[in-house]
Fold this protein.
Amino acid sequence: MPSRFQIKTYTDNTYHHLFNRGVEKRPIFLEDKDYAVLLSYLKTYLSPKNKNALSVQATNSSVSWRERDQALRLLRMNNFYGTILLLSYCLMPNHFHMVVWQKHGPGIDEFMNSLWTRYTMYFNHKYHRVGTLFQSVYKAVVVSSDEQLLHLTRYIHQNPIAHRKLRTLDSKGEALRSYVWSSYKEYLGLRQAEWINTNTVLSRWSINKEYEYEKFVLETDAVDSAKLIAPLMI
C-alpha cells in the first residue's frame, strides 16, 4: 500500500512540505560540489528567465560557441519562476527537506520531477552508477496553517543539529549559522538569494525580524513544536 504522502492531491495557492531520502538511506550528496550543483539548479529554475536576451546571445556570432551553447541550453531548460516559490530548504547527506508554495497544480510535481531527474543524471554520471538515487517517489504534504508553516521552517533549519548533543544555545546557534547547505543564513540576513522567499515567514515580526527568527528557532519549546508539525512528518 502506498504511503499517504505518496498519493498527492495538489491545489492552487498552497504550501507543501517536500522531502525524500536516498535509496537504502545512502548519501545523495558526497562532496560540497554536489550540494552546490543542486543549488545551482534551484537558482536556475526559480529565477526569472530573460528569453529575449538569451535568444540574442544564442544567435550572436560575435560571442564564443560556449556562450551560445549555454544560452541555448538555458532557453530549453524548464523554468518555474512565478509558479513555484521556495520558502526554505535543508540539504543533508542522505536526505532533503523543502517548503514550497505553488501557484497552481501540478506545478510541484513538474518542478520536483525535473529537478531531481536532472540531479540524478548528474550524480550517476559523476559517480559511475546507474538506477534510482532515492528510495521512493518524493513525499509531499500540505501545510495547513501559518503557525504550522513557521514551525516547519524551524524544524527544517534545525536539521543539521537534530542528532548532535549540543548543550547550550550558543553552541546550537553557531552550528546552525555555520551550516552552508540550508536557507537559514538567508533568514538571518547573513546571505542573500533572490530565489528564496523569506518574507512570508519573517513578516510575522515587524522589527528585528532576523533576530526574532533566530530566537524563535533556538528557544521555542521543542516538544510543543514537534507536536504541531507531527502531521507533516513521516
